[in-house]
Amino acid sequence: MARSILHKANTRGHADHGWLDSSHTFSFANYYNPERMQFGALRVFNDDTVAAGRGFDSHPHDNMEIISIPLSGALEHKDNLGNRVITKAGEIQVMSTGTGVFHSEYNASKEEPASFLQIWIYPNKLNVPPRYDQVKLSTGKNHLQQIISPSTEDAGTWIYQDAWLHLGRFDKGVQTTYQLKKEGNGLYIFVIRGSFRINDVQLEERDGLGLEGSTETVLTPLTDDAEVLLIEVPLLIR
Questions:
Q1: If both were cysteines, with which of 45, 183, 191, 193 could 25 make a disulfide (CB 3.0 to 4.6 Å apart)?
Q2: What does the pLDDT read at residue 1?
Q3: Considering the domain 3-234 in this protein, what is its CATH number?
Q4: Which InterPro entries match (predicted)?
């Protein structure tokens, strides 16, 4: 049976640390809501804005797939694997933290804030060698661009999970349909900009919608330059 879970933007957890303004779709840090622990393998979905010249000091992670999608500005990433890179809006970065990695993420600008989406997905393989990857997005419109999949041979980059992530920027009224890649998965939809009708549910900017039991989803942009992120993940975690 199909089921949907609506997360309106103004119902998210919120933390303002001065240097960091963060909205949490799921329980995170000091925000705890037993009804919002995760969506299947999707454990964390944070909408972060980092002040100029500030950031997250070096800290550890293990056995998690961590995806960062800059929306404005750029992040400076450093880790104990020897990576020191800048990720700008129009690019994404992925870490498979596996057996353990230390990293820091700083706003690369000393003048302007940077905003990004921080996504954590449980892996389907534990204690793998940690890795970092970064990919540039296409600039096209009116289609869904695959940015992450389980396959090293597929479009975008990959993670250790049967998960697929797509981004799309659309003109008003240009409808598209998404088909689940794997039976039993669920789909989490987040509107980055503008508004969409998802099947028969209207989503505004920064709203999220989880769909279970629906193999086909119709997305209709209701505004010009509307942008959406789709996250397909397993609902049952082994």
A1: 45
A2: 65
A3: 2.60.120.10
A4: Pirin, Pirin_N_dom, Quercetinase_C, RmlC-like_jellyroll, RmlC_Cupin_sf
